[in-house]
Amino acid sequence: MTKKIKILMDITPLFSDGIYLNAGAAGLRSGIYNVANNLFLEFLKRTDLDLSFFANTAYYYFVKKALEKNHPDLCSKLVTESKCCALYNYFKFTYVYTKNYFYKILQIGMFIPAIIAKIIMILFPKKYSAELFFSPYHYPSYTIKKNSKLKKYILLHDCTPILNIYNTKFIGAHFKNKLFNQIEKENFYFTNSEYTRQDFIKYHPNITEENSQTVLLAVSDNFKPVYAGIDKIKEKYNIPENKKYVFSLCTLEPRKNLIRIVKTFVQFLKKNNIDDLIFVMGGGQWEKFLNELSKTIDNLEEYKSKILRIGYVDDEDLPALYSNAEWFIYTSQYEGFGLPPLEAMSCKCPVIVSNATSLPEVVGDAGLLINYDSDEEHINACETYYYSPELRNEYAQKGFERSKLFSYKKTADKLLDTMLHSK
Fold it and tell me: Which of 68, 97, 257, 347 is deepest in the core (most CB within 10 A)?
């Protein structure tokens, strides 16, 4: 019998999904969650692995609830550094979510035991029986970091905070302290695109050509052409029944280039006297940026009604929204990978993306690629698609065919092949 490889996988990112927890936590069904969840499901299919699962003490009991609901047979394989510290954090976060002072009292009562447990954890780091550690997002925790026998593999997603793309000091500092400053040369790093890999090599001396590898991501199998039921979905999100729409899905934040996208879309409508098309914008939001975006939309006067913000979109509605859109636009300034364009392509929706950073690796020649900072190119791209249904259909088909090159099975196979053969 072939010996199974013991892998400890960090599944902390699964805590943040509303399906698993119904906790209302920030970052619901984020790109990070989707990557972590799909790799988790792919790893479970492998018969040559002896898997155990790690959760950061801050979220251990949330992750445990997720497993109890969806994978109860795996609960016994979930570990953390200190259950005492995890319990303290559980009471703290539960109070934050519920404002129930009962949990605040329990948190205060756990303070001294948690401090003692933390000291014991530092003096006597926990040992893990696994041979390999894999994290789809988080930096290695203290006890994992101290375990020199545990080979560590970390998936890196992008360098946006380092490059000040967010223009937010707090996020940049958090990223540097929690991940960037803890990158060690002896670990191995996967990146979700070659662009991201070269960024990390450029900006961090401990990441080199030798200890890093590009592993492209994918999208869930539910992203496929869906045309039925669009009328009900339009009604659900207050999209006018008699209007065709252009779709965009992203977190409403500065680097997504939404101010320019909105302004140039309206210029395109004005220039061509178009009245049968609106712009539908889905996704979560940054409150600070939302004010700026709202002001931009308010200043559009009679064209204000052409821009529709529908907020967070349920997963089950996304394939139909992609499939029935005239085209999808995603001219982001910076992306580590860019999952939404691949989702759109998988649903046979023609795409317009920026030719910046990693997006050309995802889209290739299967969409219109433009400069993110060019108003003229945004307007021209909209005109190209609007006035040429044949070209839209051609790019929809090309994008659909290209999307078949990406799968989480391929991603997981490449990750595991490297981990199992680079020890």
Answer: 347
Cβ contacts of 417 within 8 Å, gap of 6 or more:
none
CATH class of this structure's domain 230-403: alpha beta
> 3-class SS at 362?
helix
pLDDT per residue over 300-312, tens digit each? 888 999 999 999 8
- One-letter amino acid at 232 equals K
C-alpha separations of 384 from 241, 268, 370, 379 in Å: 24, 11, 12, 9
pLDDT digits (tens, 9 = 90+) for 254-288: 889 999 999 999 999 999 999 999 999 998 777 77
User: Which residues lie closer than 8 Å to 6 by C-beta, 6 or more apart?
Assistant: 49, 50, 52, 129, 130, 131, 132
At residue 6, the pLDDT reads 95
CA distance 95 to 179: 27
**Could you tell me the CA-to-CA distances from 279 to 26, 123, 256, 264, 423 in Å, in that order?**
26, 57, 15, 11, 50
Half-sphere exposure of residue 410, counting CA atoms within 13 Å on the CB side? 13
| CA–CA distance, 418 with 113 (Å, rounded to integer) | 41
Map tokens 């026998």 to a residue. 149
| Per-residue b or e along 346-368, where b marks 16 or more CB atoms closer than 10 Å to that residue's CB | bbbbbbbbbebbbbbbbbeebbb
CA-based nearest residue to 315, from 11, 42, 14, 17: 17
Question: pLDDT tier at 423 (50, 70, 90 boundaries)?
Answer: low
In the structure encoding, which two tokens stand for residue 223, read together?
């992203």
Reported as half-sphere exposure (CB side, CA atoms, 13 A), residue 71 has a value of: 18
Are domains 5-81+126-218+408-421 and 230-403 of this chain identical in fold?
yes
Give all strands (DSSP E) within 122-257, no chain letters. Answer: 132-135, 151-156, 188-191, 212-214, 244-249
Work out the end-to-end distance of the chain between its first and last CA atoms, rounded to an integer number of angstroms. 21
Radius of gyration of the chain from its Cα atoms, rounded to whole angstroms: 23
Question: What are the structural domain ranges in the chain?
Answer: 5-81+126-218+408-421, 230-403
Contact present, 191 and 155 (Cβ < 8 Å): yes
CB 133, CB 153: distance < 8 Å: yes
CATH class of the domain whose range is 5-81+126-218+408-421:
alpha beta
Q: Which two tokens stand for residue 61?
A: 């009991």
Rounded CA-CA distance 418/423 in Å is 9
135's CB contacts (< 8 A; 6+ apart) are 9, 10, 152, 153, 154, 155
- State the residue for tokens 């014991």: 120
Residue type, 141: S
